[in-house]
Amino acid sequence: MESQSCNGAFEVTKVSNLNCIDLSADIQKSVTLLKQACLDCGFFYVVNHGLSQEFMDEVFDQSRRFFTLPLREKMKLLRNEKHRGYTPLLDELLDPDNQVHVGDYKEGYYIGVEVPGDDPEANKPFYGPNIWPSTDILPGWRDTMEKYHQKALDVAMSVARIIALALDLDIDFFDKPEMLGKPITTVRLLHYGGDVSNPSEGMFGAGAHSDYGLITLLATDDVLGLQICKDKDAKPQVWEYVPPIKGAFIVNLGDMLERWSNCIFKSTLHRVLGNGQERYSIAYFVEPSHECLVECLPSCKSEENPPKFPPIKCATYLSQRYKDTHADLTLYKTQVSGGGPITGCD
């Protein structure tokens, strides 16, 4: 199938066939499949990860309960400077060149590592107390999300160990305190409200982007929407749908891993197109510790292939990427204090 892009060129879309990593299988087989996926497109499925379908159904049910609240209730939980809380429709602009400065047609909710406000660690970016809905409104919501946060980290650690072996590193390379021993991990609940995307007019559920960190685990409902572009420089770009598989995570590599691997492993461009159906997904972003220095791995450089990126601290890199893609919070404060309208209010 074909669709016209913003610049008038035609994009080709098809359905992608991704490798499937079974966490209960022989690890050497998993390393082979994962390495092929990382060299090819940076996306793969993970199955037999230990999270029951019953529990995943509960997490999605709790997510739906939040997003069906009136907008004025959700805006009381608006995200803060630590990127905790609710992100309204159009809050995020991931592809300014093609989105005509409109923003993503999705709403979300950030839940990070829970750090008490009086803990010195809370002074770091992306650490601090979470913003939680009232138990009167959403009983059991916090318990479910905190449980998911921990279970998803266990899956991420298993995947990171396979990635380490695929990069000819020790299996516990990413287990170190400066790596994932004290990670920046974030659950982001996402809701696409049934808008129909129109690439020719710059309207997307989520604009084309690559993720920022190490890896992302994505759980989705059964509504098709996610697309990947294996070669962002191709003319025309070829976009492939990634079909949801019940019970599987869709896993993709982030920009930090691309930097670490000196572009041997890919952080691939992806986006979401709305087709008129509501769609729910849950992203789990996995980044190393704040002080982790992201620099080319010894196994990924040589005289013929020197490092392509300068070293950078994880917290510095993440802070800039979030600043570049999210609306200024003062916009919402001005709307509320001035009595102005809140876009899309019920």
From TrEMBL:
UniProt domain Fe2OG dioxygenase: residue ranges: 183-288
Entry superkingdom: Eukaryota
A Pfam family that the UniProt record links to this protein: DIOX_N
Transmembrane segments: none
GO function terms (MF aspect): dioxygenase activity; metal ion binding
Family annotation (InterPro entries): DIOX_N (IPR026992), IPNS-like_FE2OG_OXY (IPR044861), IPNS-like_sf (IPR027443), Oxoglu/Fe-dep_dioxygenase_dom (IPR005123)
Keywords annotated in UniProt: Iron, Metal-binding, Oxidoreductase
UniProt xrefs under PROSITE patterns: FE2OG_OXY
Family that this chain belongs to: Belongs to the iron/ascorbate-dependent oxidoreductase family.
Protein name per UniProt: Fe2OG dioxygenase domain-containing protein
Organism this protein belongs to: Trapa incisa
